[in-house]
């Protein structure tokens, strides 16, 4: 029961982090959000290492290639803020999880990153089709809920872009996992976060003519700066729950926390949650559930 609660809490924190990035986006932009979120994540990981291990993070034996998750995080964290600002937290989180499922299936099928090769089975197709159906329901039945998106086809593009963000998240996690093999999960998270912060900052300097818009950071809601700490704590709780629960159960409980928090955040920040939007999210969640259920049976 404890680890189920930890999985739900991890989902709540992940969804909250996306909302915080959405709060920062109008003030900092994509690269600014990437820098701030990665930097605060690194600071939090550094603090956790001091408290838990009584030492700073150890990176001596860590290959640089294992920190490329930080570069992936520049894309994921920055654009998650943009997508939340356009689509809301619930839709962004839901479609990002779907993208993670799609890319995980590809990684497993081809055995990328040294993972065990697991061929794609036709039994997973119904779940994936259900997810795609949910995307179209969100677009065509819930499209009126996205007042900031003027064109329905641009909205559809954003919905699929949210899935792409989820796909890139898989690469970030694979690099993080590779780093954890050398220095442990917390130190690996620190290394990837600091590389991500450095990459985002350098790109930001170049694209702004060495005049980063950090003056606007003072105008951003203070609550938004919880993005880094929430991300780190979610990472720790996620590791604990997945170590003690079956992957299927841990994933579902985490998804419950993510979607419930996303809907609550949208209600608070946007003031409403249209039925069409909710129906699409539920169809996507059914697809995720079916996929996880079928893959769990295959693994048993």
Any overview of this molecule?
This protein is mainly alpha-helical. It has one domain. Helices cover 77% and strands 0% of the residues. The protein contains nine helices and no strands. The protein has helices at residues 2-53, 69-87, 89-110, 125-140, 152-183, 185-207, 227-244, 247-270, 275-299. Helix 3 crosses helix 5, helix 3 (89-110) runs parallel beside helix 9 (275-299) and helix 5 packs across helix 6 (185-207). The mean pLDDT is 86.
User: Radius of gyration, rounded?
Assistant: 19 Å
What is the string of helix and strand elements? HHHHHHHHH
In total, the number of strands is 0
Number of domains: 1
- Helix coverage percent: over 70%
Q: Beta-strand level of the residues, as a percent range?
A: under 5%
Which structural class best describes the helix and strand composition?
Answer: mainly alpha
* Major beta-sheet overview: none
Principal-axis shape: globular
